[in-house]
UniProtKB/TrEMBL annotation:
Region of interest called Disordered, as start-end residue ranges on this chain: 1-37, 367-456
Superkingdom in the source lineage: Bacteria
Pro residues bias spans: 368-379, 386-451
Residues in Protein kinase domain copies: 48-306
InterPro entries: Kinase-like_dom_sf (IPR011009), Prot_kinase_dom (IPR000719), Protein_kinase_ATP_BS (IPR017441)
Keyword Repeat: no
Record's keyword annotation contains Kinase: yes
CDD domains: STKc_PknB_like (cd14014)
Identification of the protein by name: Serine/threonine-protein kinase
Naturally occurring in which organism (per UniProt): Nannocystis radixulma
Keywords: ATP-binding, Kinase, Membrane, Nucleotide-binding, Transferase, Transmembrane, Transmembrane helix
Transmembrane segments: 337-359
GO molecular function: kinase activity
Length: 529
């Protein structure tokens, strides 16, 4: 087909989740509604007629089409041309489509074909779904009833369980990637889209498909698990965290706050939600992956029991410690469901909070975790940092460009110089696991030349629209001048809980590959928006 103008437009559904996976790093111009789409009306691979554009995201555009031989509706996802600059990207895209097509689960969209256009642009063909994604649902309807969210969450958890067994980690679970349709009289039947594609985007940005590049951080802000922000080893439990965040979003319209190892346990905005569901979400959203559900199936099991209104035992998994007897009892009465939290669960919750606080206050460097009960994805996540670390640069520190723009020098800053806070002696030991519980006021040392401007520019460009207030970023460099991911803190006044905007800022800083003065603590204030 000529053109492959998938960066053109057509109707694009609004998503409250904002960004596509890693599209924060993109400098692509905004989509314009008046760009003609040369794919429309054409025939792909001799048998798929492209009828209309359904929308586009970070990876490519999706079209409604028709299988001409079978006369069946299909949907086609076509990779964006800018990814075509990478000679290997089409192959990786197809490889992911091939892997995802093997998942074969009722709640995973069925991929029926994949290939390349004449000019080398990759595509895959899916069953065409009639309905809308959950981002559109929550935008239109606002917070959903908890019973619906439990039903939706269980289906996604089952889809994830099947994918993880198949060795596929989604890496970008969010409402926009979960499609809602009506099937068998169920108006909330869910199909999960885009398995594995976030990895392809990351590979295209950060180099090799081995995905061990320093600085690569995949996912969508607000749904990214804390261990990814910290640059620690990660596994399928990043999807469990993301599903917890998705359910929180559906229940409240808001993303859960993130602590990133700071300031004690987060407060989920779930007061109107039954305690059983709160307990489930706290476990799915546990800061430490070892305290999360070990498998998506375990999470699905608890959601199923909650929905059934029978006695529910929150599966204790490996952590928090096992307790005997029902942890949570759900009973039906004339007024509906009622919940009793048993002493063991109460104890487990309190212990969980203690664990949260402990790890939060230590800004802990967690050991790599292995998935429990499912085979690990043989391909490491892009966020894993390879060992050994890069060599420490000789002082004075050199500001290297942000990851997505390797050739660009740090830009000049039109902004006022950063404000620095009061002094603190450098940490005696740069090991983040030995960091003091709550950092003392940071050092009043100058930032490396150019780097604050680079950070600030990146934040303004990629997160600026959502800001409207003063933000203070704090972070520490390790003994080799690398940023300690778990040390990054975004402050708005005295508040350290993160919303979308602050999470985006932290992400930009975390993924930057700037080199800092070894052992320094930095504070950078700016007014954004
Ligand atoms: N199989 C399908 N059938 C019908 N609509 C689909 C199908 N797959 C995707 N869509 C819709 O097409 C639109 C574009 O999908 P796309 O995956 O490109 O968007 P996105 O999820 O926002 O992007 P990304 O995940 O790449 O960031 C969305 O509205 C999505 O709901």
């Amino acid at each position: 087909m000529a053109g492959d103008d998938v960066d053109g437009t057509g109707p694009t559904q609004a998503s409250p989740d904002g960004d596509a996976p890693t599209d924060l790093a993109s400098d692509a111009p905004p989509r314009r509604a008046d760009v003609p789409d040369s794919l429309l009306g054409g025939v792909l691979a001799g048998r798929y007629r492209i009828d209309r554009r359904l929308g586009s995201g970070g990876m490519g555009a999706v079209y409604a089409g028709t299988h001409l031989l079978l006369d069946r509706p299909i949907a086609v996802k076509i990779i964006k041309p800018r990814f075509g600059d990478d000679p290997g990207i089409a192959q990786r895209f197809i490889q992911e489509a091939r892997t995802a097509s093997g998942i074969a689960h009722a709640h995973v969209v069925e991929i029926t074909d994949f290939g390349e256009t004449e000019n080398g642009t990759a595509f895959f063909v899916m069953e065409r779904l009639e309905g809308e994604d959950l981002a559109a649902t929550v935008t239109r309807e606002g917070p959903l009833a908890w019973q619906r969210v439990v039903h939706i969450g269980e289906q996604i958890a089952r889809a994830l369980g099947a994918a993880h067994k198949h060795g596929v980690v989604h890496r970008d679970i969010k409402p926009a990637n979960c499609f809602r349709l009506t099937r068998d009289d169920d108006p909330d039947y869910i199909k999960v889209l885009d398995f594995g594609l976030a990895k392809v985007v990351g590979a295209s940005r950060h180099g090799d498909a081995s995905l061990t590049q320093t600085g690569a951080l995949l996912g969508t802000p607000g749904y990214i698990a804390p261990e990814l922000y910290r640059g620690l080893a990660a596994d399928h439990r990043v999807d469990i965290y993301a599903l917890g965040a998705l359910m929180h979003k559906l229940l409240t319209g808001e993303l859960p706050p993130m602590r990133l190892g700071l300031d004690g346990p987060s407060e989920l905005a779930l007061s109107a939600v039954p305690p059983g569901l709160q307990a489930i979400l706290r476990r799915a959203l546990a800061d430490d992956p070892a305290a999360r559900y070990p498998t998506a199936q375990a999470l699905a099991g608890d959601l199923r029991r909650l929905a059934a209104g029978t006695g529910v035992s929150i599966d204790p998994g490996s952590d928090p410690p096992a307790a005997s007897g029902p942890l949570l009892t759900v009973t039906r009465d004339a007024r509906g469901l009622s919940f009793t939290i048993g002493a063991p669960l109460l104890g487990a919750l309190l212990l969980g909070l203690g664990v949260f606080a402990y790890f939060s206050l230590r800004a802990v460097s967690l050991p790599p975790t292995e998935p429990v009960g499912v085979p690990p994805d043989p391909r490491p996540l892009a966020v894993e940092r390879p060992a050994p670390p890069p060599p420490a640069p000789a002082p004075p520190p050199v500001a290297v460009p942000l990851a997505p723009e390797p050739a660009a020098p740090p830009p000049a800053s039109p902004d006022p110089p950063p404000v620095v806070a009061s002094p603190e002696p450098p940490p005696a030991d740069s090991d983040p696991s030995l960091a003091p519980p709550e950092p003392a006021p940071p050092t009043a040392k100058p930032l490396p030349p150019g780097s604050p401007a680079a950070v600030q520019k990146a934040i303004r460009r990629r997160c600026g629209e959502t800001f409207g207030y003063d933000v203070t970023l704090q972070w520490k460099a390790d003994a080799e001048g690398r940023l300690i991911p778990g040390s990054v803190k975004a402050l708005v006044g005295k508040r350290t809980l993160l919303n979308d905007a602050e999470t985006c800022a932290v992400r930009q800083l975390t993924r930057s590959e700037l080199v800092w003065t070894p052992g320094e603590t930095y504070t950078h204030k700016f007014k954004a928006g």
